[in-house]
Each structure stands twice: as C-alpha cells, then as structure tokens.
C-alpha cells in the first residue's frame, strides 16, 4: 500500500472510531450536565449536508447586557483603574459567611491577608451599617475577581493572549447582588472556581505539599486555570506547551492525545491563545516567507530554473512591483504536511502536519517558529472534519487522497486552547511537573509574594504581537 494511502486509511479508521465515541458521548453529556460545560454543538445551526469545500440587584446601577464575546480593550484604556466597586447591604450573617470564605481561601491557593480579615472582623463587631456595607462589598468583589479571573496581574502573564470571558458572563455587580440577595455568599464564590479536573487535583496537591518551591508552582498553576474561562466547552483541543502534548477533550475527559511540536524559546515561543477552528484544510499549500524567498535567494533560483521549481513542487511568480512570490504546492514534502487546522488569529498560529514526523520521537520538541505541529495530524483533521463539519468519512478520505488543496469550513464551533501549565496531568493521567521552557513561572510566583494589585480593564497581555513571516 502506498505511504499516502496508509496514512489516509489508518487516519480514517481512527477518526471514524473517535467520531462514533464522541457523537454518543455528547448526547449523554448534554442530559447529565445542565449546570456543567456547555455543548458547543448546540450553538451551531441545524445539521446540513456535507459542506462544499473551497478548492485552491445591588445599589450600583444594573449590569449592562452581556456581550457574546469579550470586547477588545483599547490599548489606551488597558491600565486605567477600575470604577468604584458596586455596593450592597450586608447582614451580619452574610458578612460572617464572607469572613469564613476569606479565612478558608488558602485551600484554593490564594491568601486570606489580601482580603483584610481583621478589618472585616472589626466591622462585623460594630454591627450592620454603612461601614460594613462599604467594606464587605469591596472585599467580596476583590475575592470574587481573584477566584473568577486570577490574582496574577496582567503584567506578569507573559504572552498570555487568551481572553477570559467570565467577567462578561458574571460581572461584579451581578455577583454581589446575587450573594447578598440570596444570602448564599459561599455558593456564589464556589460557582466561580474552575471546573477542570486538574484544578481539583492541584488543590489536593496543595494540602499535601510542604516544599515552599513546589507550593509556589502549584499556586501559579492553579491561578492559570483561573485565567481561562470556567466553562471550556463540551469538546475542545488543548495544547499544553511545556508538556508538548495536544489533547482532544470531551466533557473535560481526554479522548485522544497527540505529541506536539511547539515554538522554540525566544521570539518564536508559542503564545497562549483561546481560538476556534474555522477550517480543516486537506493538502494545504504553503506561501514561502520572504525571509527565505529573498533572504536565502530561493525566489531568484526558482525563476532561473522552472524545471527545478516544478521538480521541487514550487510555483514562483514575479510580481509587477518586482517582488517574487513562491508557493509550495500540496504534496508529501510540503512544509505543512498533508493537513492544517485553520484557527485565524493575529499571531498567525495554527495546527498542522509535518513531513518530518520522526521529530515526534524526540523528548524535547520545542522546535518550531511558533505554530503547533501535531502527531497523527491526518487522524486529528479527519476527526475534526467528521464531527465539526458533518463530513462523511468517505468524503474525508477522498479529499485527503486527491492531492488537491481542499478547505472544509467547520459548521460547529470547536475551541482550541494553547495553554502553559508546568504542573498538570500527563498523558497517563498522573499529576507531574514539566520543564518551564519559556521561564514563565518566575513572574507569576513573584507576583504572589507582593501585595494584591487592583484589577484593571486589561484583558490580555499588551506585549507586542510577534507575527513571524515563517510560523512553521
């Protein structure tokens, strides 16, 4: 059997099996998890035939309506202090419940001292009134913000561009009103904590760990879960960069794992993102970056030798302005391999195959210019096309074997999270630590040793976007 056919056959068998498991699991999960992760497929339009591919109540004012997506924050507003916190009336019972939550927050890797327990105790002793209302409202909002969004200031979240939607879904004023009107302070705060199983395991590790360095790492990684949305969705892809692994996850359960190649440390480090797969591309083309076309002289050499260009699978074009465009055609040696998962973002990061599949055997795989290369990418892409685009398995095989560029648009949302956890479950389900390949633990841990900073309107890192012309 030809090598390409073998890849398509094995990828199809695995993808069809996965699709059957996932399709069955989605129905049960939707019925069993009314309060749990949201089924992303429910947000899509009704199923259609296989898509045609493209070839080649507080005292404060009521909270505003919740947007469907986190708004982009203008750079000029990123460091503005927040508005005054909302205000509510506090009964003594509710204030005592808040004090108990503050005193117990160490179990979640936060610090009771940040929320002024002594001052709250004194205010409670004086009884109900404006002083208690002002203090308890402010401390509740601080605690809710840190549980919901994380304690780490944005300046310490290096290359973190994944916008957390939770503050749009659960704004401060609404949380405060809910806590004081239902008299369920503990329940409201508990509802903001991450639901991913790793968070619970980190919390358990924290109670058993004595080494200060390990405690610092556990706290940092618990906070990283708070930087993400509490509800990650029913099905999603998650790449943990330090582990160099990609997971296909349904209902927070890992269905399949794939070794991944991630960005080299330095300016080619892979940024942390929360995106959506928009297209599955079979037999992708690759537009060669100008750093190679011009810098390495490839364009001039190919124009001088059309036979060589054809032999090596390139099409070189001299443009009217004198520049040269070089596009590598689909094929076994294409730099993107045989498939690509398109997830448009300002960093030009995506997931793709590679002709150099031997690299997945290496223990250290921080080798790319930022993009994610996935092991068994054909299997992954077919699974995504079958489940996310209603593509029949036979059609997926046809597209893959055609040798022609074919883009299949997703008809159902499928989230992708590129994360950075240095303490997490490994592929065997065991909690362990991973090398901090980009040295991103230190600023997070250092921020925990400093007084809590007020939250601002900044939603993601304000570092310059490094959009490399060669993201492979």
Automatic annotation (TrEMBL):
InterPro entries reported in the protein's UniProt record: LD-transpeptidase_YkuD-like, LD_TPept_cat_dom, LD_TPept_scaffold_dom, Transpep_catalytic_dom
Gene3D superfamilies the record matches: L,D-transpeptidase catalytic domain-like
Keyword Cell wall biogenesis/degradation attributed: yes
Q: Does the keyword Transferase apply?
A: yes
Q: Where does the L,D-TPase catalytic domain start and stop, copy by copy? A: 235-400
Signal peptide (UniProt feature, chain positions): 1-19
Return the Low complexity bias intervals.
44-75
Q: Which Pfam families match?
A: Scaffold, YkuD
**Active site as annotated:** 352, 371
What CDD domains does the record point to?
YkuD_like (cd16913)
Q: Where is this region: Disordered?
A: 44-78
Keyword set, alphabetical order: Cell shape, Cell wall biogenesis/degradation, Peptidoglycan synthesis, Signal, Transferase
Its annotated pathway? Cell wall biogenesis; peptidoglycan biosynthesis
Name the family: Belongs to the YkuD family.
Q: What is this protein called?
A: L,D-transpeptidase family protein
Give the species this sequence originates from.
Novosphingobium cyanobacteriorum
Lineage of the source organism? Bacteria, Pseudomonadati, Pseudomonadota, Alphaproteobacteria, Sphingomonadales
